[in-house]
Amino acid sequence: MPDTTYFIRETFPVGPLQCNCTIIGNRLTGNAIVVDPGGSPAMITAKLNAMELKVIALVHTHAHFDHFLASGEIKKQTGAPIYLHKEDQFLWNNLELQCKMFNVPYHPVPDPDFWLQDDQALPCNQGCCIHTPGHTPGSMSFWFAQEKLLIAGDTLFRGAIGRTDLWGGDFKTIEKSIRQRLYILDEDAVVVTGHGPETTIGKEIRENSVIRG
Fold first, then answer.
1. What is the bridge-based pairing of β-strands 140-144 and 128-131?
2. In sequence order, what are the residues at sequence separation of 6 or more whose Cβ sits closer than 8 angstroms to the Cβ of residue 213?
3. What does the alpha-carbon distance between residue 13 and residue 174 come to, in Å, rounded to a whole number?
4. What confidence tens digit (pLDDT) does each residue in 96-108 have?
5. Residue-level pLDDT at 1
6. Between vectors from CA 180 to CA 175 and to CA 184, what angle results, nearest 5°?
7. Residue 168: its pLDDT value, please?
8. Does the pLDDT at position 171 exceed 50?
């Protein structure tokens, strides 16, 4: 069984929409990934420096503007590659338009370096990608089995689910993703949501107001 004593996780809200950004690090290697750097690049880099971690990947649950706003600046500073699911490329290509629609300043972001795949291993701490479309076609969740930790992006919230009335959203698809890919995980698993408080898989199975198990 992998040694999990080196696992580091810090989640904190960033940017104008208070997206939950998560740093996943490894004390042994000193490497880390940043999930959903949705703004506040100085805060993110300060936390990485304080934990003495080197970011090796910028990983996105999906390509809505509030989950990427610091990606360009952090990549510029660190050279860390950008990861995204291919089916959200159309959203990534329209990041500037998304920002204009919500009156948020746009900071240029380069194209993704790598396309995430379902069941792909993440480059840190035995994490695994789960394709959970519905909020967007390329929405991804990230599962850390040893730590019983799920980063769900905007797919699953405490007591709710992600919106399906935005670009590429579909209720039946997100329902399938939640029931067939997320609700089968350990009920004790902590769920880091895209915005707002954390929850657990078991709590959502029993109490979610939209999709119960």
1. antiparallel
2. 179, 183, 204, 205, 206
3. 24
4. 999 999 999 988 8
5. 39
6. 125
7. 87
8. yes
Buried b (16+ CB within 10 A) or exposed e, 139-174: bbbbbbeebebbbbbbbbbbeebbebeeebbbeebb
Query: Could you identify the residue written with the tokens 């905007």?
Result: 154
CA angle 105, 106, 108 (to 5 degrees): 155
Q: Which pair of structure tokens corresponds to residue 10? A: 């810090």
Collect all residues with Cβ–Cβ distance below 8 Å to 121 and sequence separation of at least 6.
Answer: 127, 128, 129
| Predicted pLDDT at 212 | 84
**109 with 68: CB under 8 angstroms?**
yes
pLDDT number for residue 66: 94
pLDDT score at 181 = 98
- The band of 125, judged by pLDDT with boundaries at 50, 70 and 90, is confident
Return the HEC string of the chain.
Answer: CCCCCCEEEEEEEECCCCEEEEEEEECCCCEEEEECCCCCHHHHHHHHHHCCCEEEEEECCCCCHHHCCCHHHHHHHHCCCEEEEHHHHHHHCCHHHHHHHCCCCCCCCCCCCEEECCCCECCCCCCEEEECCCCCCCCEEEEECCCCEEEEECCEECCEECCCCCCCCCHHHHHHHHHHHHCCCCCCCEEEECCCCCEEHHHHHHHCCCCCC
